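Friendly challenge for the regulars: who can give me the structure tokens for this chain first? No prize, just bragging rights.
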Amino acid sequence: MRVGKRVVFRAILRNVSSHPVRLVQPGDGSGTGGRTPILTWRATEATRGEIDLTPHAADPFINGPNPKEIFELQPGAQRELLNLDLAGLVTFAHPGTDHVRLVYENDPDRRWCCIPGSKELDRDLAPYRKTTRCRLESNEIEIKVR
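First reply, four minutes later:
Bragging rights claimed.
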């Protein structure tokens, strides 16, 4: 890959436990910490140590809760994460070998920010409060940048 080019990733969650889990697809605000789940890109670069590739500026407004984002994952089942581009664009500014991973964190009690005109937010978030709290980290991917 070349310096400055954007990288597109695909991520699949697999339930390796012996019980079902309820999780949430990423949505508007997941990449900036404005809602659950929070997606964070992490990279290790030899010249700069570990860096965080996720932008942390809060969205001025995010979409409200959508129960269709919630899904149950049975033991042994897998599901592709959607909207990974909402977690920020991953680019590499320097040549070298980088190691990248994605962190998915579902916090059922997380306060959502920046939703305009939502008087019923507590009611709308009730299904999210019943999801599984977790912090998942993807396998590391090696990327050679020229």
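The chain has a mean pLDDT of 81. The chain has one helix and eleven strands. Your move, everyone else.
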